[in-house]
């Protein structure tokens, strides 16, 4: 099968990649991508995707994706990892929900309690229908970003 994206490195690009791989001071994935680009260079070794995948212990699609990113976006795009367009999981609390949580946490504690606990705050958010469900750990992580000191330091 003919290669769709042909990698042809200029002298400056080849030199930069060789410096990157010889120093070993960059992130491991960058060095690995640089080695792969050097291996698939049409004016150099011109290895197949299968050979490169076997040599660097990765999937053939990884090599094909690096080739494509180099041809479409240039050297930096090929060396970097693909950026995620959308986070894998939606946030439980949006800005309005966070504001409600902080208002509750900084307000008076419930009757019979000295302070709010993370679980009590989570239960209160569900009772007020701010969210359908939320864990005490999510409440703790959200409050950690603020300076509200009226809450209990440990979850429980």
Gist of the model:
By secondary structure, the protein is mainly alpha-helical. Helix content is 53%, strand content 0%.
Whole-number tally of structural domains: 2
Morphology: elongated
Summed over residues and divided by their number, the pLDDT gives a mean of 89
What is the makeup of the main sheet? Answer: none
Uncertain stretches of 5 or more adjacent residues: 152-156
The gyration radius over C-alpha positions equals 26 Å
Q: What proportion of the residues form beta strands (DSSP E)?
A: under 5%
Instruction: Report the helical percentage.
Output: 40-55%
**Number of E strands:** 0
Class by SSE composition: mainly alpha
> What's the tally of helices?
8
- Give the end-to-end Cα distance, rounded to a whole number of Å: 61 Å
Name the helix and strand elements from N-terminus to C-terminus, one letter apiece. HHHHHHHH
């Amino acid at each position: 099968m003919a290669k769709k994206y042909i990698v042809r490195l200029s002298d400056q690009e080849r030199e930069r990649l060789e410096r990157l791989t010889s120093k070993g001071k960059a992130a491991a994935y960058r060095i690995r991508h640089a080695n792969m680009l050097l291996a698939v260079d049409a004016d150099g070794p011109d290895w197949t995707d299968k050979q490169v995948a076997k040599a660097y212990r990765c999937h053939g699609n990884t090599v094909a994706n690096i080739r494509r990113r180099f041809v479409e976006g240039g050297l930096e795009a090929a060396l970097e990892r693909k950026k995620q367009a959308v986070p894998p999981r939606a946030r439980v609390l949006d800005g309005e929900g966070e504001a409600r949580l902080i208002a509750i946490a900084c307000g008076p504690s419930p009757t019979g309690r000295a302070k709010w606990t993370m679980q009590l705050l989570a239960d209160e958010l569900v009772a007020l229908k701010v969210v359908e469900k939320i864990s005490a750990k999510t409440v703790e992580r959200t409050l950690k970003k603020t300076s509200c000191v009226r809450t209990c330091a440990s979850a429980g």
